[in-house]
């Protein structure tokens, strides 16, 4: 940072601190006493109720955490453990192999080493009990698989392309399935991490859906397109489960996410579902009544988000998604022209919602 | 440094034995700053008082449930921020421009040079024109003295994203204020 920037920073800090520390905004003694009485009467009462002992492991782990910076733990000690294992199970050549394997693609000789090293990383992240780190790794690996699908799509031999892409798509689905399972398991094993993990999964799912759609467009094989369509469904289910977790936890008073963040997550789900269904509804031959019904469900969802009734909004989003899924074109068929089916599905789904409202 | 170490030990006592004395000491350290943080958002002393108590009670509930505390200050301000947003829908500090300008002359009384009178006004106006997220970040970083990692916990973003946002805000302010400050 140059001198001018440093000076600017320093002076900005002074102005803001003086502004912030104005005595008019100070906590008065009376107010402080009232806060203290309220807080500590509760604290002492609550303390009497709970007396479960804390294990030695938690004590040692907590103490170690205070003196070992998180970065050191995550980026130095944890990889050190991985290296130790690698040295323990393999030979010196293993490390070189892992490095060489990092750029390999499905079907390459070193691809299995790449997958094995990823599994090792996940296993060690799991040992540290940091579910957010595990989730992060799974997302990185899922992205890698999609990247691999794109790369093997350039292979000219159609059969080889399909075989190699299938391996990558399977790997992607495996990571997404694991994320889904994590969400279920965390409810009982690590409820404190659940909302954060769900939030991360919910946010990242949107970009996976977009990536899958782009990959599908350029893959040039109906078989792989179909597999990618299945993967998209899986991502949507996981995303829906993640957002549902966030909504439910928020409704029960969990402070890990703010209302604004929940509204944004449900809003994103709504926008994605609406974008998909919009293309179908604009089909020639889809009746005006059906179009109005979809528009009404979308409006309902928007209003419910506005009113912070996220559970209801999510039900509407699912209805829109259901319409899109039921009438979505099969891979390779292009946009469907079965307007009558679209109309019928819209009527069925929206009538269910209207029934719920009553 | 010593104070930081003491605080780490207080947090250790809090996490392992739910020690009320450690909680009381942490309460003593943060009550004023937290109250001010809340007051700037809700603009009402009574509400700020209630919310401050709520935040400490939620923090205690967090401790009792044995949930992990990675950045204590970050967690405290995150609870405060979310409580204010959820209960009072006031994500943005709500101090008025007039109030802000009344405070600004204090700089002169204390003999601190921050440029001429016009500059102070320009600074105040430029800060008040920032959007809610930017203003929040700026006050957490400069006024409350939180570290980037702690702010990341408060606003639920990655530290890198907070760093980039801070850089962008500084650049924006420099553009608005010019090189006069």
Automatic annotation (TrEMBL), chain A:
Keywords: Membrane, Transmembrane, Transmembrane helix
Claim: Transmembrane is one of the keywords in the record: yes
Highest taxon of the lineage: Bacteria
Keyword Transmembrane: yes
Segments traversing the membrane: 75-95
Protein name (database record): Uncharacterized protein
From TrEMBL, chain B:
Domain RNA polymerase sigma factor 70 region 4 type: 121-173
GO molecular function: DNA binding; sigma factor activity
Biological processes annotated in GO: DNA-templated transcription initiation
Domain of life according to the entry: Bacteria
Domain RNA polymerase sigma-70 region: 26-90
Keyword line: DNA-binding, Sigma factor, Transcription, Transcription regulation
A Pfam entry, by short name: Sigma70_r2
SUPFAM superfamilies named in the record: Sigma2 domain of RNA polymerase sigma factors, Sigma3 and sigma4 domains of RNA polymerase sigma factors
Family per record: Belongs to the sigma-70 factor family. ECF subfamily.
Family annotation (NCBIfam families): sigma70-ECF
The protein's name in its UniProt record: RNA polymerase sigma factor 70 region 4 type 2 domain-containing protein
Organism of derivation: Candidatus Uhrbacteria bacterium RIFCSPLOWO2_02_FULL_51_9
């Amino acid at each position: 940072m140059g001198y001018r920037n440093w000076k600017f920073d320093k002076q900005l800090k002074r102005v803001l601190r003086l502004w912030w520390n104005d005595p008019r905004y100070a906590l008065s003694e009376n107010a402080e006493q009232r806060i203290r009485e309220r807080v500590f009467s509760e604290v002492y009462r609550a303390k009497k109720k709970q007396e479960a002992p804390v294990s030695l492991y938690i004590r040692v782990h907590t103490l170690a955490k205070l003196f070992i910076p998180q970065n050191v733990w995550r980026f130095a000690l944890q990889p050190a453990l991985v290296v130790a294992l690698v040295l323990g199970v393999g030979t010196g050549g293993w490390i070189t192999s892992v490095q060489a394997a990092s750029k390999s693609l499905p079907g390459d000789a070193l691809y299995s080493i790449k997958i094995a090293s990823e599994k090792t990383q996940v296993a060690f992240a799991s040992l540290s009990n940091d579910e957010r780190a595990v989730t992060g790794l799974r997302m990185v690996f899922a992205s890698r698989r999609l990247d691999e699908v794109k790369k093997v799509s350039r292979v000219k031999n159609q059969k080889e392309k399909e075989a190699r892409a299938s391996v990558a798509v399977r790997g992607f689905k495996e990571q997404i399935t694991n994320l889904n399972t994590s969400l279920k398991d965390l409810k009982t094993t690590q409820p404190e991490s659940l909302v954060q993990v769900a939030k991360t999964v919910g946010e990242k799912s949107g970009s996976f859906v977009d990536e899958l759609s782009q990959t599908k467009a350029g893959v040039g094989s109906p078989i792989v397109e179909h597999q990618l369509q299945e993967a998209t469904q899986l991502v949507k289910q996981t995303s829906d489960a993640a957002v549902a977790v966030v909504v439910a936890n928020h409704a029960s008073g969990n402070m890990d996410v703010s209302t604004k963040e929940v509204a944004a997550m449900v809003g994103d789900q709504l926008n994605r579902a609406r974008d998909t269904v919009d293309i179908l509804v604009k089909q020639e031959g889809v009746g005006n009544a059906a179009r109005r019904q979809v528009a009404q469900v979308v409006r309902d969802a928007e209003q419910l988000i506005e009113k912070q009734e996220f559970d209801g909004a999510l039900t509407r989003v699912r209805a829109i998604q259901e319409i899109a899924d039921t009438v979505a074109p099969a891979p390779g068929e292009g946009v469907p022209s079965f307007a009558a089916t679209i109309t019928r599905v819209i009527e069925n789904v929206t009538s269910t919602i209207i029934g719920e409202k009553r | 440094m010593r104070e930081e170490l003491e605080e780490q030990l207080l947090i250790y006592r809090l996490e392992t034995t739910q020690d009320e004395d450690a909680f009381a000491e942490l309460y003593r350290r943060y009550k004023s700053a937290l109250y001010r943080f809340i007051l700037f958002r809700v603009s009402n002393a009574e509400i700020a008082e209630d919310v401050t108590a709520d935040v400490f009670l939620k923090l205690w509930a967090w401790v009792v449930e044995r949930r992990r505390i990675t950045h204590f200050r970050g967690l405290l301000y995150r609870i405060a921020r979310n409580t204010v947003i959820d209960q009072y829908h006031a994500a943005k500090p709500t101090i008025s421009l007039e109030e802000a300008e009344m405070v600004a002359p204090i700089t002169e009384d204390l003999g601190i040079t921050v440029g001429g009178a016009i500059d102070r006004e320009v600074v105040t106006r430029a800060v008040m024109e920032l959007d809610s997220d930017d203003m929040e970040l700026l006050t957490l970083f400069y006024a409350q003295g939180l570290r980037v990692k702690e702010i990341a916990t408060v606003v639920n973003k990655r530290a890198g994203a907070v760093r980039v946002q801070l850089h962008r805000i500084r650049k924006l302010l420099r553009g608005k204020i010019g090189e006069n400050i």
